[in-house]
Protein: GNAT family N-acetyltransferase
Amino acid sequence: MIEAGSAAWRRATSDDAVALRDLERAASLVGLAHVFGELPYPEDDVLARWVLLLDDPSVVVEVVDDDGGDELVALAAHDGETLRHLAVRPDHWSAGLGREGFRRAEAAGARRLWVLEHNDRARRMYESLGWRPSGTTQECPWPPYPTELEYAAAPSP
Structure:
């Protein structure tokens, strides 16, 4: 297992689009099964979103490759003000990669993010890092359209 302190983050390229989709799918199917249940994973839509994000010069997508370089184990996507996506392959959960990806986005200026209301694992991590719900909500674009909460960084002292 790759630990956070030894992870080599790199900037993703358009060649990583399918691997980004696959990593996000792996994390979602395990971590969000209680939200999305047996609904089919929106593979084509998620892949199309990654292609657009990788082509957007305002978005930074950083990844960690597994030891063999065949798959991705972590991703963090941010645009200078918002943490857009953060995912870690389930067999690497609790290795600190999520926190490290979060900190990278925060260091680049991210001060807000959206998280599913019932993504308790992610919410615990964000709250342990001092972020709090802003009170703003929106509907997730994927069926069954669960609620997303906006989180904001704690104000600087």
Notes: The helical segments are 17-31, 33-36, 43-55, 97-107, 120-128. Residues 17-31 form the longest helix (15 residues). Residues 4-112 form a domain with the Aminopeptidase fold (CATH 3.40.630.30). The radius of gyration is 15 Å.
